[in-house]
Amino acid sequence: MIVLDTSVISAFAEIGRFPLLKEILNRLSAKAIIPHTVEEEIIFPEAISALKTNGGWIGIEKAQDFEKYLFILHDGEAGVIALARKHSWIAALDDLDARKLAKKEHVKITGTLGLLKVGYELCPIKDKLELQKIINELRTAGFFMATDIIEGILDTKKKLYSPEIISHQIFP
């Protein structure tokens, strides 16, 4: 299970590649879930229609004890960490403070760029040209990406491993 934050959902939706997120998760054999705190933040129609309450593929669960993270995080990020921690699931977060806190709480993490890397490795993103195009689209949309992270993703090789092996490599 991967607990998605609003930033990850919004990044894929804003550049018109929301179906790619679903395909990447399918290739990982991972189900998507959000805490109720993220549900309240979703603004993109395709993401709203993807919620299970609307017949979609993203589950929703009430996050408990997320309030203890509100001293540093927004409701959505706090809910993602609380839910991932409770179930030992992977948290998909982009915010640096949220990622630091998740690591401190021993929560496995990824983010938009980590999911794109897996998307390239598992072939929903067919080649480096398409990967570069997606990265450029994110940059144009205002998504912050450090140059060394982009270079690392663009140096990625296609993999022929099972999703379990890739999961351990991508989400240490």
Q: Could you give a short account of the major beta sheet?
A: 5 strands, parallel
Query: What sort of overall outline do the alpha carbons produce when their principal axes are compared?
Result: globular
Beta content comes to 5-15%
Q: What separation lies between the terminal Cα atoms? A: 15 Å
Mean pLDDT: 91
Q: Count of helices?
A: 10
- Name of the top-level CATH class: Alpha Beta
Give a brief outline of the structure:
By secondary structure, the chain is α/β, with parallel strands linked by helices.
Structure description:
The chain has 172 residues and is of the alpha/beta class. The chain has one domain: 3-Layer(aba) Sandwich (Rossmann fold), CATH 3.40.50. Helices cover 52% and strands 9% of the residues. It has 10 helices and 5 strands. The chain has helices spanning 6-14, 18-27, 36-39, 45-49, 75-87, 96-104, 112-121, 128-140, 147-154, 163-170, and strands at residues 2-4, 32-35, 58-61, 90-92, 109-110. Strands 3-2-1-4-5 form a 5-stranded parallel beta sheet. Helix 6 (96-104) links the parallel strand 4 (90-92) and strand 5.
